[in-house]
From TrEMBL:
InterPro entries: NUDIX_hydrolase-like_dom_sf, NUDIX_hydrolase_CS, NUDIX_hydrolase_dom, NUDIX_hydrolase_YfcD_pred. GO terms for molecular function: isomerase activity. Signal peptide: none annotated. Gene3D superfamilies: Nucleoside Triphosphate Pyrophosphohydrolase. Belongs to the Nudix hydrolase family. Its cofactor is Mg(2+). Residues 25-153 form the Nudix hydrolase domain. This is Isopentenyldiphosphate isomerase. It comes from Kribbella pratensis. Keywords: Hydrolase, Isomerase, Magnesium, Metal-binding.
Length: 161
């Protein structure tokens, strides 16, 4: 179940994820840019079976906040589920909103530093690699990235170049 939000980010109810996607209902989601101590960013490609933007590249781990779930706990959960990263200090970035014809949500955004191994969740992540901010920015126009990640976190990545 996913909590549905009004424009003031107040919970107005909860629906199954499939209904949220089908009706493009406003909800909460998380995003974490993972850097290593060398300043590289972890970039990955989503599996072709994802329910929104399948097969696209992404440079944030994250996902939908479940009904009744604290957004910070959702960030921790998603980072562990998608990339096998846990026990890291999360640095909060400003919250923001995103909307297009596929998704509408209030975003809780973070960064973290991780130098350990990355373990992909096979249902969600098909490929991944570390890239410098300059390499990643150069790929913005070449690869098909998640439009929400580009809009919400692209300026942050550009600031690192």
């Amino acid at each position: 179940m996913v909590a549905i939000l009004d424009e003031a980010n107040q919970v107005t109810g909860a629906v199954p994820r499939s209904v949220m996607r089908r009706d493009n209902l406003r909800h909460s989601a998380t995003g974490v840019v993972v850097l290593n101590s060398a300043g590289e960013i972890y970039v990955h490609r989503r599996t072709p079976t994802k329910d929104v933007y399948p097969g696209r590249y992404d440079f944030a781990a994250g996902g939908v906040v479940a009904a009744g779930e604290d957004p910070f706990h959702a960030v921790v959960r998603e980072l562990d589920e998608e990339l096998g990263i846990s026990g890291v200090e999360l640095t909060r970035l400003p919250e923001d909103d995103y909307a297009d014809e596929n998704t509408r949500y209030h975003a809780y955004l973070y960064t973290c530093v991780w130098d350990g191994p990355v373990r992909h969740q096979p249902e969600e992540v098909a490929w991944g690699a570390w890239m410098s901010p300059a390499e990643l920015v150069a790929k913005f126009d070449e690869w098909s990235f998640m439009p929400d990640t580009l809009a919400l976190l692209g300026p942050y990545v550009r600031s690192l170049v």
